[in-house]
Amino acid sequence: MKKKIVVGKNIEFSYGNNKVLDDVSFHIDEGDFVGIIGPNGSAKSTLLKLMLGLLKPDQGTIELFGERLDKFTDFQKIGYISQNVRDFNQMFPATVEEIIGINISPRKGMFKGLKTEKKVKVEKALKIVGMDKFSKDKIGNLSGGQKQRVFIARALVNNPKVLFMDEPLVGVDQDSQRSFYKLMDVLNKEHGISLVMISHDIGVISKKVNKIFCLSNGKVYCHDSGKCDCSNMLKDIYTDNMSILLHHHDSGQGDG
Ligand SMILES: Nc1ncnc2c1ncn2[C@@H]1O[C@H](COP(=O)(O)OP(=O)(O)O)[C@@H](O)[C@H]1O
Ligand SMILES: [Mg+2]
C-alpha cells in the first residue's frame, strides 16, 4: 500500500459564522499529483492552509505523513508556494541565490560548512528548475515564468517530499505554463515529489494530474482524474464561465 502524505477526516472549518468546509474527507498518497479546483471562494486556499497546519480545523483530524498535525514537526518535508508569492516586492534588491538561500532550514552541526553547503543546495535546486545561469541576477529583473521557477527552487531547497502550490499559474504566459507542467512531471516522476496544486484551468489540469479535488458549497469531491467529469459536475458551479470551461475541456488534448 502507498504511504499516505495527507489524510483529512470529517473536517469542518468556519471563518466566524461562515462555514466554508463541511464534513470533508480526503487523502493524498505518495506519488500523487493532485489538482484542486473550484470557483472563487470555494475554500481551496483554506483547504491547503489546513493541510499545512496554518489553520486548525474546528472539527475532524488531519494527518501529515501519518502523524497528527498538532504533533507534526518535520516541516522540511513540505514545500509551500503561497498565493502571495507573486506579489513579492519587485524592487526587493535580492539576487536569485539570496532569495533561495534564506529558505534553507539550518540543522544541527551546520555551522562550519554552512556557506559551501548552502551554496551546493542552492545550485542544485536552481539546476532542477533550469535557472542555474541566473543565480546572480536580481529577482526583480526576471520574467514572470522565470520568477516562478525561482520560487519553485526556493521550495525545493530543503528536499521536500511534497509541494503545495496555490494557483501557481496565475499571471504566467502559455509557454511558461507548458514548461511549468514539464517541470512538475520531472519533480513528480524523477524526484518522487508528491504535488498538490490549486488551479483555475480545469481543462488543462485534469489532463496532468492523477487525482482531482473539486470544491463546491463546502464539500470536496475527489476523483481519479480519468474519471473526473468536471464539466458536468461544475456546470452548476461555474455558471458564468461554463462555455469557456467546456471549450478548454474539449480542446486541451495534447496541450503541453
Ligand atoms: N481570513 C479570512 N477571514 C474571513 N473569511 C475568509 C478569510 N479567508 C477566506 N475567507 C472566506 O472563506 C471563503 C473561502 O476562501 P478561500 O479559501 O480563500 O477560497 P478560494 O481559495 O477557493 O478562492 C471565502 O468566502 C472567503 O471570503
Ligand atoms: Mg484561493
Specify the helix fraction band. 25-40%
Name the CATH superfamily classification.
Answer: P-loop containing nucleotide triphosphate hydrolases
**Major sheet, described briefly?**
6 strands, mixed
The structural domain count equals: 1
Q: If classified by CATH, what would the architecture be?
A: 3-Layer(aba) Sandwich
Tell me the number of strands.
10
Number of helices: 8
Estimate the mean pLDDT confidence: 84
User: Distance N terminus to C terminus?
Assistant: 31 Å
Bound molecules: adenosine-5'-diphosphate, magnesium ion
CATH class: Alpha Beta
Shape: globular
Fraction of residues in β-strands: 15-25%
CATH topology tier name: Rossmann fold
| Structural class assignment | alpha/beta
Strand order of the largest sheet: 6-7-8-3-9-10
| Radius of gyration, whole Å | 19 Å
- Unreliable runs, pLDDT <50, ≥5 residues? 239-256
Topology as a string of helices (H) and strands (E): EEEHEEEHHHEHEHEEHH
Assembly type of the chains comes to single chain
Write up what this structure looks like.
- With 256 residues, the chain is an alpha/beta fold.
- The protein has a single domain, classed as Rossmann fold (3-Layer(aba) Sandwich), CATH 3.40.50.300.
- It has helices at residues 44-51, 96-101, 114-128, 144-156, 174-190, 202-208, 230-233, 242-251; strands at residues 4-15, 18-29, 33-37, 59-64, 67-68, 78-81, 162-166, 194-198, 211-216, 219-224.
- The strands form two sheets. A six-stranded mixed sheet has the order 6-7-8-3-9-10, with helices on both faces.
- β4 (59-64) and β5 form a beta hairpin.
- The longest helix has 17 residues, at 174-190.
- The protein is globular and about 50 Å long.
- The two termini are 31 Å apart.
- Residues 239-256 have low confidence and may be disordered.
- Residues 15, 20, 38, 40-46 line the site of adenosine-5'-diphosphate.
- Residues 44-45, 83, 166 line the site of magnesium ion.
